[in-house]
Design goal:
Layout: E1 17-18, E2 21-22, H1 25-46, H2 54-74, H3 78-98, E3 108-113, E4 116-121, H4 130-152, H5 154-162, H6 168-203, H7 205-238, H8 241-244
Antiparallel strand pairs: 1-2, 3-4
Length: about 240
């Protein structure tokens, strides 16, 4: 049976839904990642020590690295926005890496489609679902522009974006394409990785392992790109705050 790939996420099982909401295989991974991250945060919190152990040390290293990137870009607003930027990076990174676990995309139920029997996986990468990446991009869009409005005010932010009242509508449309850019870049790379690993594993398992290792790197790169773009756009949005303040 050849691997089967769909752009849209599938129901985790026939008839699986909560009211009008269909429970999809990508939604399950999203929940697993969120619960795992919350569990790690709770473990670090309850075992917090002046002399950090292995888990606390790893978490502190990640947070300090992110802080070194966010602080210079956002200045005095870094403290306020750091939790959001760190959340984007950590969630996307581990959502990408969770997609490489052995059970993801490999176990499921058989369904007939166009005269063929296909495997519908119980688990599918969360960031290989356009709904997930679109939600992240919309959240990033709001972070960018709410930050600008909070610093400059609504009219000041619009003026900072367009520099010309007559060109304001054009610049507003351009800004809306940030959502498209962020969501499709992340979705496209992760979905392509899912397809490559699936096809390579089906044709030659050794090649599949090689792509698996590369996807670890690509997962880190994509989380970094999304976060850095959001950080850069936010920095531009609040630029001039020192002069305005």
């Amino acid at each position: 049976m050849q691997p089967n790939f769909h752009l849209a996420a599938e129901a985790v099982c026939p008839g699986c839904q909560i009211g009008p909401i269909v429970v999809t295989n990508s939604m399950v991974i999203m929940l697993v990642v969120m619960i795992a991250l919350l569990l790690v945060a709770w473990l670090v919190r309850v075992r917090l020590s002046a002399v950090p152990g292995g888990l606390q040390n790893a978490v502190e290293m990640i947070m300090e690295t992110l802080e070194e990137v966010v602080q210079p870009a956002l200045g005095k607003y870094a403290t306020r926005l750091f939790p959001l930027m760190a959340s984007f990076f950590i969630f996307i990174l581990f959502a990408n890496w969770f997609s490489l676990l052995p059970l993801v995309g490999t176990i499921g139920y058989i369904e007939g489609e166009e005269g063929h029997r296909v495997l519908v996986p119980f688990l599918r990468p969360a960031t290989a679902d356009l709904n997930m990446t679109l939600a992240l991009a919309i959240a990033a869009f709001f972070v960018i522009h709410v930050s600008g409005v909070s610093v400059h005010g609504p009219l000041g932010h619009l003026k900072a974006l367009s520099h010309n009242v007559f060109l304001a509508p054009v610049f507003v449309v351009i800004e809306l394409f940030v959502i498209v850019s962020l969501s499709f870049r992340l979705f496209g790379n992760l979905f392509a990785g899912e397809v490559l690993i699936g096809m390579a594993s089906w044709i030659l398992p050794v090649v599949g392992v090689l792509f698996l290792v590369l996807e670890l790197l690509f997962g880190l790169i994509q989380a970094t790109i999304f976060t850095m773009l959001t950080l850069s756009f936010t920095s531009v949005s609040i630029s001039g705050a020192e002069e305005h303040g």
